[in-house]
Design goal:
Elements lengths: L4 E2 L3 E10 L2 E8 L4 E9 L5 H15 L9 E9 L2 E8 L17 H20 L2 E2 L8 E3 L5 E3 L6 E2 L22 H4 L7 H17 L8 H10 L5 H4 L5 H10 L10 H20 L13 E2 L1 E3 L5 E3 L3 H20 L9 H17 L15 H21 L4 H30 L3 H22 L6 H22 L6 E2 L21
Antiparallel strand pairs: 1-2, 2-3, 3-4, 4-6, 5-6, 7-10, 8-9, 11-14, 12-13
Helix pairs in contact: 2-4, 2-8, 4-7, 9-10, 9-13, 10-13, 11-12, 11-13, 12-13, 12-14, 13-14
Length: 508
């Protein structure tokens, strides 16, 4: 077909790529006098489904105009070598696809810049009501200015036109390594979060050199539905904690918990800005010491800078709040013995000590998402409840046995739900939310002890506990200073210019 003129306008020069929707040619636009990329798909007789898909691609792509989206200028039908064909004229991007660069982990600065640009492209697409549905390295081109440009909306779909889908219910469309769980299930009502999950897979590959889930097609789909991705820090040491957390949130199985394209772009830009600031700072003699999380300054509304509280301050503050609250809650009893304040102080002290001995750790695949401190506290409460039943009401030995056997697992399951509530409502990291959840369990226990004198039924007490636990956990999170952000930045020891030094100590 080389040298063939399509639609009396585009002269084919050479084939530069091919895919499931056709072949892409470098072609000369005889009307405009410049070179374009011409995508051609030849159709057989009665191939109405593929023709509809291609025309749909043209209509979708021509609706988008963005610097990081490959622009589509023209489309139509023609006869080539006696066969019916459709064509799509696009910008010619002189640069490789991102898939040609992902054979190894990429530099952090390039990854952050390209991921932010792809997020911008998705912002534009989602505002136009378009879901790409096939975000992957081969659909992203790196132009001569080292900018990323998103292309191939061949299986994209107008979200408002769900009744015109070309998929069959239960059939998965997309590339398995980058498909969202909802795609893997064959859902037909895909929305913007599906693209963000695929972007998370892409980010994981750019950072670690491999997609989060690998294997054969159905094996990968099963992992998208059920497996937990490995944290990036276990695959590439030195990854900024914020970036690792962002990727884990993008790969959340629940679409409603994933960040939007706008939020993703903003967070990527923040990490990129911090990295550039660190790289631009003058280098001083490195301090040789074991690697440790770095406490990063957080903005102050007055225009200065303040240092966010670390895990120690957070744990001590939560312990103080809990001690005061438990003491106050226990005084709600009709007779408050003199040792009640001491009991409250003990509860707060133990909470702080437990969490100081169990500092924040990155989540590991397959591990129970609960700290050792929370697990120990909940098992202690379950054992205490069983022991109290045996001592004070021996006739309820069966209830004590039930509490001893099932109380611990039940409390752990409830704690997981409360922790997720705190994470979602208060936007707290997992460790901080876990701390607030454990404190809430202690508050709830104290309130139930106070209410026991009111003679409430077991059902009422259980219902009260279910309502009080998340409320007290949220209140504790609100009363606890927040701002701890642990960031593992590339190895460099820096000092800010000027009289106010701001140093970050990283191992040599």
């Amino acid at each position: 077909m080389r040298g063939t003129t399509v639609a009396s306008r585009y002269r084919l020069a050479e084939a530069i790529g091919s895919g499931g929707m056709g072949t892409v040619w470098r072609a000369e636009d005889l009307h405009e006098g410049h070179t374009v990329a011409l995508k051609i798909i030849t159709l057989g007789e009665g191939d109405a489904v593929r023709e509809a898909a291609f025309r749909r691609e043209a209509r979708v792509a021509m609706r988008l105009s963005h610097p990081h989206v490959v622009a589509v200028h023209d489309h139509g039908a023609a006869h080539l070598d006696g066969r019916h064909a459709l064509y799509l004229a696009m910008d010619l991007v002189d640069g490789p696809p991102l898939s040609a660069l992902t054979t190894r982990p990429l530099p952090l600065a390039d990854t952050l810049a390209w991921a932010a640009q792809i997020s911008q492209a998705l912002e534009a697409a989602h505002r136009a009501g378009i879901v790409h549905r096939d975000i992957k390295p081969s659909n992203i081109l790196i132009d001569q200015h080292r900018c990323a440009r998103l292309c191939d909306f061949g299986i994209a779909r107008l979200t408002e036109a769900t009744h015109h889908t070309l998929t069959v219910t239960g059939a998965a469309i997309g590339t398995p390594s980058y498909m969202s769980p909802e795609q893997a299930r064959g859902d037909t009502n895909l929305a913007a979060p599906s693209d963000l999950y695929s972007l998370g897979c892409l980010l994981h590959e750019l950072m670690a050199g491999a997609a989060p889930f690998t294997g054969s097609g159905w094996q990968v789909l099963h992992q998208h539905l059920h497996a937990t991705p490995a944290p990036l820090s276990t695959l590439r040491p030195g990854v900024p904690r914020e970036l690792e957390q962002l990727v884990l949130e993008l790969l959340d199985k629940n679409p409603g918990r994933r960040p939007t394209a706008t939020q993703t772009r903003q967070r990527l830009n923040q990490v990129h800005a911090a990295l550039c600031e660190l790289a631009a700072a003058p280098t001083v003699t490195p301090v040789r010491r074991p690697a440790a999380p770095t406490l990063v300054d957080t903005p102050d509304p007055t225009g200065g800078r303040r240092r966010g509280p670390g895990p120690r301050i957070t744990a001590l503050w939560a312990g103080a709040v809990t001690g005061a609250a438990v003491a106050g809650e226990l005084t709600l009893t009709s007779v408050a013995p003199p040792w009640v304040p001491a009991l409250g102080a003990l509860a707060g002290l133990l909470l702080a000590v437990f969490y100081l001995l169990d500092p924040p750790q990155p989540p590991r695949p397959g591990e129970l998402r609960i700290t050792s401190a929370a697990l120990f506290t909940l098992l202690l409460l379950a054992g205490g409840a069983a022991l109290a039943l045996l001592v004070f009401t021996p006739s309820l030995w069966w209830a004590a046995l039930t509490a001893a056997v099932l109380g611990g697992p039940a409390l752990v399951g409830c704690a997981s739900a409360v922790r997720r509530t705190v994470e979602h409502v208060q936007h707290r990291p997992a460790w901080s939310a876990d701390l607030a959840t454990t404190a809430g369990a202690l508050h709830t226990t104290a309130l139930l002890l106070a209410a026991d004198h009111a003679g409430l039924s077991a059902f009422t007490m259980t219902a009260a506990a279910a309502a009080l636990w998340p409320v007290t956990a949220l209140l504790t999170a609100m009363a606890t200073p927040h701002g701890t952000r642990l960031r593992n930045l590339p190895a460099r020891t820096t000092a800010r210019r000027g009289s106010r030094a701001n140093t970050a100590t990283i191992p040599a």
